[in-house]
Amino acid sequence: MKLTRRDFTAGSGLVIANAIPLTSALAQTKGEPVVATTAGKVRGLVNDGVYGFKGIPYGASTAGVNRYMPPQKPAPWSGVRDCLEWGPLAPQPSQSGLNPAGGMGKDFATFFGTQPDAPSVRSEDCLMLNVFTPGLDRKKRPVMVWIHGGGFGIGAGAGARANGTNLAKRRDVVAISLHHRLGVLGYCHLGEFDSAFAHSGNVGQLDLIAALEWIRDNVEAFGGDPKRVMVHGESGGGGKIGTLLGMPKASGLFQRAILQSGTANRLPAKEQAAMRAEALLKELQIAKTDVRKIQQLPFEQIIAAASKLEAAAPPGPRSGFVPTKGTVDLPMDPIDAVAGGSAKIPIMLGCTKHEMALMLMGSGTDPSKITDEQLQMRLQGMVGAKAPELIKGYRANHPDYTAGDLLVRIMSDTAMRMGAIDLAEAHIKAGGAPTYMYLFTWESPKLPNLKSAHGIDGTFYFDNTETVGMAEGDPKAQGLATNASTAWANFARDSKPSAPGLPAWPEYTVEKRETMILSNEPHIESDPMKDDRLLLKRLV
Description:
The protein is α/β, with parallel strands linked by helices. The protein is built from 16 helices and 15 strands. The chain has 2 domains: 5-336, Rossmann fold; 346-539, Rossmann fold. Helices cover 31% and strands 14% of the residues.
């Protein structure tokens, strides 16, 4: 499939990744802006008054001898490079893991805007970013850098949900999204077998740092302010930002951060990561003494081997290839680094109310059909002998909940909400910058079983709800999108999440736990679901 200029100006949201042509023509044609970057000139397109540049290289190919190595700068080019199409996806499994036969499979397009296996090219030459700006006038607008989700193993910073056109046009910001190395190619710690691979367990994070360095050096030419850069990300994107907060090399590259439904407070130590790497080498039939041979294999073979290992592994947090702590790039757990003062910048954290409804439906489990026995079994796998007391406590807090409601609530709190609260407390402990908290509770009239599920809020922050059908039937949804995207943009602008349609948003404190409830009737609550929080603190 080929994305034409007509497709772009029509606002196409398909995830397409084709070869990016170069042209020797230096002349700028009407309506096709050209900007000089540190590596060469790039040509974009104008869509609805917004200048868009897709697939700008911020790093060299990560194939061959660059595999598992820190990112290198892109090779300079002459002439003008056409940046009209989304860049290639980072190598990753071809399927997202969501069960197409499950309840989420049939609703995936409505929920996310694209099918999980949308046609796309996967390439190790993937270190590219996309820029959307309302002007090339060096006005120094705030910069909003989106880091995509999908855990640490899958995903894309492209498509309808991540298109920054509306943010740029309606909120007067520069919106940027990007791709970076993922999974086994981005987070496999091989440094215990060869010192040349000392950074290999965190190269996906180093890619993000390289992208932020590119933004520092180039964004002013796109109308952005390199001293007002905000990173925001959801799910795995939030986890990557949480990890960046603990990385010394990331310090100073962004001045605000929003972590949405993901934190990655604690990560595997290098000893545990080395065991996973050793298992991978064994699966690939590579001796530890010959680890450099892994740079010669097709990336598809490495991903297949990693997928086989992960499928055989027992379920558990951070069981795949994720960032490695105790290394030169990530000395300690991110939450400990934050508590020690590594991130004295304004941060905002939050989640949706029914996060895990997405994961349950995606695995083919309808929460409305969960029995008491299944609830007990599920929670025993999570918290062991504490399951009965946990269920009893939540039933007392929510006497009207079904077994499925309780499962969603408990899983959502343990997997997402408590992590955000813990990181907020660590940030407050360090002092020096404000902390803000939110809880997104809006429910889609088109997807009633999912309620306020994981990821349902993403298009609201981009003001892109019209790109998917999940808001149809709710005339107030656009108002919430306006309020949320304005608050996000204003946080990038002046560190204060404000919007004309929102009440004053106070800082989060451990005394009052002030939280913005993002719904059709936005309001502030102190310590929402307090009894659940205290129960989990005591038991889990």
